[in-house]
Amino acid sequence: MMLTNDLRAELLGNRGLVSRARKEFIPTGEQLANQAWEQVFRDTNLTVDDVTLNFNDYLCKLVDTEYQLYLEYEEQCMTQGVSKLVLDPEVGVDFPNVRNLVEDVLHILGNTTLNDSDKLAAVWAKMRPLIQRVEQSFAQGRMSRAGGSPQYHLRRLMENADYADEFETQQILNGTVDFLFPSRQAWERDWRRCVIVSIKRSLRERYKQVFEELSIAQGTVYLFVTETYEEAESDITGPKVERLNEQNVYLVVRDEIKNMRFSEDVNVIGFSAFISQELPNHRARWANLLTT
Length: 292
What we know:
Elements: H1 5-11, H2 17-25, H3 29-40, H4 48-87, H5 89-92, H6 96-109, H7 116-145, H8 150-163, E1 168-173, E2 175-181, H9 184-189, E3 195-200, H10 210-214, E4 220-225, H11 229-235, H12 238-246, E5 249-253, H13 255-261, E6 268-270, H14 271-286
Parallel strand pairs: 3-4, 4-5, 5-6
Antiparallel strand pairs: 1-2, 2-3
């Protein structure tokens, strides 16, 4: 059985049922990120030394905790949120075909002439296409949502590492960059001593067009990728690392990935080395750009 065009139209798109359920039952990226911080640092008073010494562990734990929180909210949204919206009289009117399908299922369940096996078979036949499409839609949204908050975590860690006044976010240098160290004013004075940081959940095809994506052909660029070791095994490959090297881009990854797979590649840097070595070295070079 295939979904009808009417059902598909009600499920998908910006005004579809899945989108509405996601907006109503899943917190925003910033809200999830805040929840992750509260969970990871509930009883911790962060100091500059703490962040510097544990930067890799903190960033990994924050990203991973937020992702797990998202999956929990997503599960609740799929199993409870969608049905709540459909059965809400004020909301269900916007999704009549989905509502009719659900009412047919409820009718089957209440049919006293059918045994349990027949009920289950009939319900499964009616709901399976809808359930599959809802799950696919959530999975597709998960890909983009999973990378939504690394910038937030990196920003707060940088602030706690005593760099609060030495970077600006979302600066437009032809293209938009996530972080510019130490400032836009410093960049305009001498871009050669400044640092650009872009942060993503995964590398995927971005290695081909880092400079094209940022529309920048100058400056020192660090591309942060927060994916796990298991994800990186198939995503971060030798040819991609070499391509980034040709573009003069440093790839910044979890320490485990650096140590286990790219220990000899100078343009691959672990999270710990970035905060303890790379950034302090650049800081010494940009320091007098901040003086008046």
